[in-house]
Specification:
CATH topology of the largest domain: Immunoglobulin-like
Strand order of the largest sheet: 12-11-10-14-19-16-17
Strand content: 35-45%
Bound molecules: copper (II) ion
Largest sheet: 7 strands, mixed
Number of helices: 5
Structural class: mainly beta
Number of domains: 3
Number of strands: 32
CATH architecture of the largest domain: Sandwich
CATH superfamily of the largest domain: Cupredoxins -  blue copper proteins
Shape: globular
CATH class of the largest domain: Mainly Beta
């Protein structure tokens, strides 16, 4: 539970971050005072992040050494090899451990990892084929592993208090009885997930459907997962974590490197973009309004490809795009920018032509009809001035309280309202267990890019978004929460229970 004492502790934490040089702390103090002040309820309006604290780039630059953009290549996370292959399942093992990584070139520093790398190894799963993975916790604090977007039994979902104690292991089973999608795994331990994920406990889980090969979307080396995070660095290249410090996390990382470059051939690529940042909202633009084709969202393929020049991405969301680099002459350098921060994310360096038998068909995944909803539930995001924090339906998270009881098999419409208008902070909602359909925003049907299945949906200040989901397949307790992890880890989370 978040208490006033814990809130005060935030101030201590902020003060404790003064390991940075004096000049930097003086420049940062104002920022931190403002941040702490916001926590106590006197905050300013949010810009691009789901916190607040704008105009802090100067302070951040004083903390971390400047890195010239496009000076390092985009690393691709390794694919995790199974430890054994059973007739109906692939078996894996991963150790959660401290490791050293040079997120900034030449400045190796401690990070938290799944298996030793800041972006954990990619797990490649097949629809209908089980994954059994044993996570060993070699850290000195509790962990819990959640597979974001997955339809799994409650005992395997990484409920925040269902933890792996230090030195112990836990085996999670993922049935993969759901449609193909770009999922990701990350820490979800009670109160610890924000810092854990920020420091590196995240990785891709690509659930693929062999039947979708016939679509001929780019694959193999032309199918690239790209994890977007942001960070604040100390002078020695180590990550600085201060809760709700989004305004100071001004270095954008793609697969754990600051504004890297990727050499691409002149052909089509499938790019799987994941916003794994705790708080940052992106609006991605390629070059000067160059065209991208969005083919998938959180829950996999869209009904049809959507040509676009801008991809919005709130924390936890995924967007898959196809970019045809054959439209550009060899030698072209195309920058993927975040237009909200004005910062570069990644540069594509267009090289030689390569054979391309891939396609983007006009129909990707036919929309299924939704069962009729039999219940409407309200989810309200608010700011509680007495508590000094964001709440869901007026309450902070209590793992022992059930906030919503849902009959198994029921289809519900959730009406999500962001009432944090006086503070004006955007939030989003991530619901475990299900993939939902977004119906409308303030009564207006959503656009084609949001027409696929989703598990995370943005809700702007003052906005009401309706989503519809069927709660079937598993019983038990799951969480729903804002995916701004600094918010959820300090209480912006609730419990639903699916009952027979
Ligand atoms: Cu939030």
């Amino acid at each position: 539970m978040l208490t006033r004492r814990n809130l005060l502790r935030l101030g201590v934490v902020a003060g404790g971050a003064a390991l940075i040089p004096a000049a930097a702390s003086i420049r940062s103090l104002g920022v931190r005072a403002e941040e702490t002040g916001h926590v106590l309820g006197h905050g300013a309006t949010a810009g691009h992040a789901m916190g607040h604290g704008s105009g802090t780039a100067v302070a951040a630059r004083l903390n971390a050494p400047a890195v010239a953009p496009f000076s390092v290549p985009l690393p691709l996370p390794a694919t995790l090899a199974p430890t054994s292959v059973l007739p109906d399942a692939d078996v894996y093992a991963l150790t959660t451990q401290q490791a050293t990584a040079a997120l900034l070139p030449g400045l190796p520093a401690p990070v938290l990892t799944y298996g030793g790398t800041f972006v954990g190894p990619t797990i490649r799963a097949k629809v209908g084929r089980k994954v059994i993975i044993t996570h060993t916790n070699a850290l000195t604090e509790e962990t819990a592993v959640h597979l974001h977007g997955a339809h799994v039994a409650a005992a395997h979902d990484g409920f925040p208090t269902d933890v792996i104690p230090p030195g112990q292991s836990r085996t999670y089973e993922y049935p993969n009885q759901q449609l193909s999608a770009t999922l990701w795994y990350h820490d979800h331990a009670h109160h610890r997930e924000a810092e854990h994920v920020y420091r590196g406990l995240h990785g891709f889980y690509l659930l693929e459907d062999p039947a979708e090969r016939r679509l001929r979307l780019p694959r193999g080396g032309y199918d690239i997962p790209i994890m977007l995070t942001d960070a604040r660095f100390a002078e020695d290249g180590s990550l600085v974590f201060v809760p709700d410090d989004s305004g100071n996390r001004t270095t954008l990382l793609a697969n754990g490197r600051p504004a890297p470059y990727l050499e691409v051939a002149r052909r089509k690529y499938r790019l799987r973009l994941l916003n794994a940042s705790n708080m940052r909202v992106y609006q991605l633009e390629l070059g000067q309004n160059q065209q991208m084709v969005q083919i998938a969202g959180d829950g996999g393929l869209l009904p049809a490809p959507v040509p676009t020049t801008g991809i919005p991405l709130t924390p936890g969301e995924r967007a898959e795009i196809v970019v045809d680099f054959s439209s550009y002459p060899q030698g072209t350098q195309l920058v993927l920018n975040d237009t909200l921060s004005g910062l570069p994310v990644l540069r594509f360096d267009v090289g030689q032509t390569a054979p391309d038998h891939s396609a983007v068909p006009s129909v990707l995944r036919p929309e299924t009809t939704l069962p009729a909803a039999t219940n409407v539930r309200d989810v309200e995001f608010a700011y509680d001035f007495a508590l000094g924090w964001f709440t869901i339906n007026g309450k902070l998270f209590d793992p022992n309280r059930v906030d919503a009881t849902i009959q198994h098999g029921t289809t519900e419409i959730w009406r999500i309202t962001n009432s944090t208008v006086p503070i004006g902070v955007p939030h989003n909602l991530h619901v475990h267990l299900v993939q939902f359909r977004v119906l409308d925003r303030d009564g207006v049907a959503v656009g084609p890019a949001e027409r696929g299945l989703k598990d995370t949906v943005s809700v702007a200040p003052g906005e009401t978004v309706r989503v519809q989901a069927t709660f079937t397949g598993h019983l038990g307790k799951y969480v729903f929460h804002c995916h701004a992890l600094d918010h959820s880890s300090m209480g912006m989370m609730a419990v639903f229970e699916v009952v027979p």
